[in-house]
Design brief:
The complex is a heterodimer of chains A (139) and B (760).
Chain A (H helix, E strand, L loop, with lengths): L3 H24 L7 H19 L1 H8 L3 H17 L13 E4 L8 E4 H27 L1
Antiparallel strand pairs in A: 1-2
Chain B lengths: L11 H20 L1 H5 L4 E8 L4 E7 L1 H24 L6 H20 L3 H19 L6 H32 L4 H4 L3 H6 L3 H15 L8 H4 L5 H10 L1 H16 L3 H24 L3 H20 L4 H32 L15 H15 L5 H14 L5 H28 L15 H19 L1 H17 L16 H18 L1 H14 L3 H23 L4 H22 L14 H19 L3 H21 L3 H22 L14 H23 L5 H12 L6 H9 L1 H24 L5 H6 L2
Antiparallel strand pairs in B: 1-2
Classes of the chains: A mainly alpha (139), B mainly alpha (760).
Chain lengths: 139, 760
């Protein structure tokens, strides 16, 4: 597809979508969102990019192959699950750390659950892009 | 296999490590002989899967110690031998890894006290032996033999696993030491017969009993050290070991007695006839191994002290002389480049050490005094005479088998060394290097030593083995060279006489046998026919089921849903009342009309773009329903997936023909199926609405999602915390699916691939 308007618009849209996907990922625990939705939104950003500028450019922009991202995501999720073993809990038990928590406020929660969700994000992101890029290139 | 080379090169440190390891293991097992000889036993246990009653438990008693010593001892010698024999092979390291894994698996098998642990080790020996037989994988024969051994023993093992599970449930434990104390209960149990059949299916295939015997001679495609180790002393004896192990618990019924006696006797006789027919020395030895396995099985059918002593003694005798002879044949092959009995001759002059080792081992095999083989043979006859029901038949079978084995011993060890050669060998013969001589010499000398001092073997191994079979050491019979003139001695003399006759006439006999055997149905060829038939069947059913037409797969899926759901509703007589529509709002009515409209357009249109857009309308309609019922996460996901589907289909559209290219505008069967599935699903949903809503799970998550998982979005908390393992499984599936689709897209070459690549 060769459209100047789409290409020009994509520059902003793709970046916005990526940013929005991270926002969805982070807020997921308390508001609608999460790794799965975040990954889907993030991938639409790159899908748009691929449609507008071609998969070659999209692959370059991604810097690594989407398969690697998907597999890395699976690995991160696995590590997040295994981390529970360090604290003597069984596989995938969430571990929490509340940075700066006081009597009244919860502080900044950091957890292996978030790491797990990041893994999910990367898996969905990488898998969708693997499929879309391959479809665009091969068909 | 012509792996031996003229210039033997040692395998280096990698080749020597397993020698040291097996020697250490052998020494470690030796230190336990005093305890075991005092009829004691040792047990180790470690929890593995406590929830399923599976533990890593090991038992060292007379029986397992005998096997462990044979495995580690012969293992050390075979590793030393292979180091020279195969040291120059480019894949020698791989070979060492396979053989070492096999040895450790085999040790685990004979020491395991838990049925499931035993089964795991059993299958490990199956897999490693597959790799070892198929070591010469560049030949069709090697691959075929390996696969045949894997299929036959693997199929038997599966049956055996079923038998183990039944046995475990009946006995209430998977621990052998617990199971075997409940002999009376087991034998009276209605499941005794199925258990026995299933387990014997495993042991008979592993120990190559007739009619599963055909894989073992084929397995000689393996390098000679492998044959010496696996197919004489260890793996094929795993089946015998298991029957011996279960003997205290399952033996003593007519079924056990007759099954083992008949299969054992038939195997022994057929194998010894087939052995005489072979001209390849290794093949001849393979068939005598079958004969030995038959005899061992036959004795395990009995319960008398004589039979058990005969079993224990013959087990050791056979392992010693058979491993020695296999290694000798390997030396000959190495030195001359051939194993053909008709060519080899006069080797005693150039290979004196090999010749002497061969002679010692062969005399033990033939059963001459003062070798251990003689004692073994006397005991065999004594045991056979003690057979309760049909002593004449059993003795007759044994006599024939022993006489034929006597003749084969002559063919293997007398002719090639001491008689004139029948032709020129491919290589100039030379004596084998010392690492290759160690094995045959030590093993053959042990056979002589134990023959002269049978007491040595009796106290340390034979009596404890009998004790683990019969429960008491008292029943073990004495091992003596001279027991006076009695029936066994007379039978021995008859054996030697008949064996000499067989040896003298073995050439005309062989020609005659070859004619007869070729005329008879051949199990090996039968196996090929079976496999071919199986492949034809597989092709046929693949053609029927895997049509490659997506529409037919979808049809099958939806038809299954229709029959499953509809059938259940009819069978359970689910009554569906008309839903109450009075509180329907105009929004929901509009949404539903939108969805129905989209679905109708999608079915009616012949343009793919229109169909896709219409399906998109349906999808968005469903997403809006989610929003109406406040499930934003699901709605967002649905919308995003719809978007991505549009992209994917749009890409694929370029390549697809228009819908209904065949000109069929109306498909009544598809329409009926679609309507049917829709109706049934709707009815199911309505029926579910009539049940009171169980809010226990919802309430639980509403309460705990904040207090325990610190999240307010229940959907997400369930996904990443409460049900994280499910999610982990799902994302693994996503990755696998993406990679598989990627591989498929990359490898299939659609029409005009080159053109497709250039297009945007």
């Amino acid at each position: 597809m060769n459209s100047v308007i789409l290409r020009a618009g994509t520059r902003y849209l793709a970046g916005l979508l990526l940013l929005f996907s991270l926002y969805m990922l982070i807020r997921g625990h308390n508001e609608p969102g999460g790794g799965f939705i975040g990954g889907l939104i993030g991938s639409t950003g790159f899908v748009l990019f691929a449609v507008a500028c071609g998969t070659a450019d999209a692959r370059r922009a991604l810097r690594t192959s989407p398969q690697n991202i998907a597999v890395a995501g699976l690995g991160i999720a696995l590590l997040a699950g295994l981390a529970a073993a360090l604290f003597g809990d069984s596989f995938l038990t969430g571990q929490w750390l509340f940075v700066g928590a006081t009597e009244t406020t919860k502080g900044l929660p950091i957890s292996t659950v978030l790491v797990f969700d990041i893994g999910v994000y990367l898996v969905v992101f990488g898998s969708v892009l693997t499929l879309v890029f391959a479809m665009e290139e091969e068909i | 296999m012509s792996e031996p080379t003229d210039a033997p090169r040692s395998g280096g440190v990698v080749g020597l490590l397993p020698v040291a390891l097996s020697a250490v293991l052998f020494a470690w097992f030796m230190t336990h002989t005093p305890v075991i000889a005092a009829a004691g036993s040792l047990r180790w246990e470690m929890a593995w899967v406590p929830a399923l009653n599976i533990s890593l438990s090991f038992l060292l008693d007379g029986l397992s110690l005998t096997f462990a010593l044979l495995i580690s001892g012969i293992g050390a010698l075979v590793f030393l031998y292979s180091n020279t024999y195969l040291g120059a092979h480019p894949q020698f390291h791989r070979f060492v890894l396979f053989l070492l894994s096999f040895m450790l698996a085999m040790l685990g098998l004979v020491l395991a006290d838990n049925l499931i642990t035993l089964f795991v080790f059993w299958e490990l020996t199956t897999i490693t032996s597959y790799l070892l037989i198929g070591f010469g994988h560049e030949t069709t024969k090697g691959r075929r033999s390996a696969l045949q051994a894997l299929f036959v023993t693997g199929a038997g093992a599966l049956a055996m696993l079923a038998g183990f599970i039944l046995l475990g449930f009946v006995a209430g434990s998977f621990e052998l030491s617990v199971i075997l104390t409940q002999s009376e209960m087991l034998k009276a149990h209605p499941l005794y017969v199925p258990i026995l059949i299933l387990i014997l299916a495993g042991t008979f295939t592993k120990s190559a009993q007739f009619p599963f015997h055909f894989w073992l001679p084929n397995a000689m495609a393996a390098p000679t050290p492998v044959s010496a180790f696996l197919h004489s002393a260890t793996m094929v004896k795993a089946g015998v070991y298991l029957m011996a192990r279960l003997h205290p618990g399952l033996a003593g019924t007519d079924m056990w007695l007759w099954t083992l006696t008949i299969f054992g006797a038939v195997t022994a006789v057929i194998a010894s006839i087939l052995a005489l027919r072979q001209t390849d020395l290794k093949q001849a030895l393979a068939y005598t191994t079958l004969m030995a396995l038959g005899v061992l099985t036959l004795f395990l059918g009995q319960e008398s002290g004589y039979a058990m002593t005969a079993f224990a003694t013959f087990l050791v005798v056979h392992s010693l002389y058979k491993a020695a002879l296999f290694l000798v044949v390997g030396c000959m092959d190495h030195a001359t480049g051939t194993r053909e009995a008709d060519i080899l001759g006069g080797l005693a002059r150039v290979m004196p050490v090999t010749a002497i080792a061969a002679a010692l081992a062969a005399m033990s095999m033939a059963g001459f005094p003062p070798f251990l083989g003689f004692i073994g043979k006397e005991l065999k006859y004594a045991g056979a005479l003690g057979v309760a029901s049909e002593p004449v038949l059993v003795v007759g079978a044994l006599l024939l088998a022993n006489a034929l084995m006597f003749a084969v011993a002559g063919v293997v060890a007398l002719r090639p060394f001491w008689l004139p050669a029948g032709g020129d060998t491919p290589r100039i013969p030379h004596e084998a290097p010392w690492p290759m001589l160690m094995g045959p010499v030590i093993l053959a000398s042990l056979g002589t030593l134990f023959g002269i001092y049978p007491d040595l073997l009796e106290r340390t191994l034979v009596a404890p083995t009998v004790a683990s079979l019969l429960g008491t050491i008292e029943d073990s019979k004495a091992l003596t060279l001279w027991a006076g003139v009695n029936m066994p001695l007379i039978l021995s003399i008859v054996t030697v006489a008949a064996g000499t006759v067989f040896y003298v006439i073995h050439r005309p006999l062989r020609a005659w046998l070859a004619r007869i055997i070729d005329a008879l149905p051949n199990f090996d060829r039968g196996w090929d026919r079976f496999l071919d038939g199986f492949k034809t069947f597989a092709r046929w059913q693949t053609r029927i089921i895997q049509t490659g037409v997506l529409r037919q797969y979808m049809f099958a899926n939806f038809a299954t849903v229709l029959v499953g759901l509809g059938g259940t509703m009819v069978a359970r007589q689910v009554a569906v009342t008309r839903p109450d529509l009075t509180d329907a709002t105009w929004q929901s009515v509009a949404l539903i009309l939108l969805i129905i409209g989209g679905a109708l357009v999608a079915t009616a249109t012949s343009s793919r773009i229109a169909a896709m857009a219409a399906l998109g309308v349906v999808g968005i309609g469903v997403a809006m329903i989610f929003i109406v019922f406040s499930a934003p996460d699901v709605a967002i996901t649905q919308l995003l997936v719809e978007t991505l589907v549009v992209v994917l289909v749009a890409v694929a559209l370029l390549r697809l023909p228009t819908l209904d290219a065949g000109g069929k505008r109306f498909r009544p069967v598809d329409a009926a199926l679609g309507l049917g599935v829709g109706t049934v699903v709707t009815l199911t949903l309505l029926a579910m609405l009539e049940l009171p809503l169980d809010r226990r799970v919802t309430d639980y998550f509403e309460v705990t999602s904040w207090s325990e998982a610190f999240g307010r979005n229940i959907v997400n908390v369930i996904l990443v915390d409460f049900r994280a393992l499910d999610t982990f499984g799902e994302i693994a599936v996503v990755v696998i699916a993406a990679l598989a689709a990627y591989a498929l897209l990359r490898t299939t070459q659609p029409l005009g691939r080159g053109k497709g690549k250039d297009e945007p």
